[in-house]
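Researcher: I'd like a candidate sequence for this fold, 247 residues long. If you have to choose between options at a position, lean toward the conservative one.
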């Protein structure tokens, strides 16, 4: 009887180890794109504007944002570059950072545009489920089921490049992507933290679809702030700042 019980237990353990696994989801590819609704003549705005590629806020960048947010960042950069040209500004750059801008460009550029993306991701109204293994706690795995939200804002600022003094700033809210039902497609050796959860295909794909649906609305709000007449009102202040440096 003891031999039979041991044999049954052995079958259960081996069965859990070698049972066929369900095919895992794969991450989808998300494309973010926006076409400006106006196309002014090149140089018609009468102003030279430089552009630094968008960057993530420090508290977000330190978590490791992954492919989805890298794609979003690149798209914002490409579309703002197109926007600046479509508005009739003469553009310098884009630069990867302010420090990359050479002195001659700083002299001839009237305003340098910088864009900080500051999203926040929260997993809520859910929990991690523990999948027990007969091999012991070291073999337990975990999966998550619940809801998530992505909120935040995009901060746009303009500086006079010789003095690096801020002369213009705007903020665009990322439309709240809230209470999205998510479920991990994989099991993990431990519960994941924060943005680690976004890397799971089951979460990544749902969040990517929601963010892609919001993209045009985000860009429409950014476009509204690039007003040629408003930028021209800054010329007096720009001239004063450059004079401080002797230009």
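Model: Candidate sequence:
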């Amino acid at each position: 009887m003891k031999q039979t019980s041991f044999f049954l237990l052995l079958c259960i353990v081996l069965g859990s180890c070698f049972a066929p696994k369900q095919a895992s989801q794969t991450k989808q590819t998300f494309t973010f794109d926006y076409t400006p609704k106006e196309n002014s003549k090149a140089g018609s705005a009468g102003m030279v504007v430089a552009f630094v590629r968008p960057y993530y806020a420090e508290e977000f960048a330190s978590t490791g944002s992954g492919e989805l947010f890298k794609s979003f960042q690149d798209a914002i950069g490409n579309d703002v570059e197109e926007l600046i040209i479509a508005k009739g500004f003469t553009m310098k750059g884009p630069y990867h950072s302010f420090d990359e801008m050479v002195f001659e460009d700083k002299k001839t550029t009237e305003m340098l545009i910088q864009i900080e993306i500051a999203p926040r991701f929260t997993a809520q109204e859910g929990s991690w489920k523990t999948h027990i293994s007969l091999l012991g706690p070291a073999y337990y795995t975990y999966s998550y089921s619940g809801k998530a939200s992505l909120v935040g804002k995009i901060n746009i600022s303009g500086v006079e490049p010789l003095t690096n003094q801020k002369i213009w700033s705007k903020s665009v809210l990322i439309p709240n992507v809230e209470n999205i039902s998510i479920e991990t497609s994989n099991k993990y050796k431990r519960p994941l933290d924060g943005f680690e959860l976004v890397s799971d295909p089951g979460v990544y794909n749902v969040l990517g679809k929601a963010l892609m649906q919001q993209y045009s609305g985000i860009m429409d709000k950014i476009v509204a702030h690039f007003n040629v007449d408003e930028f021209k009102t800054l010329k007096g202040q720009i001239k004063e700042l450059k004079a401080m440096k002797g230009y």
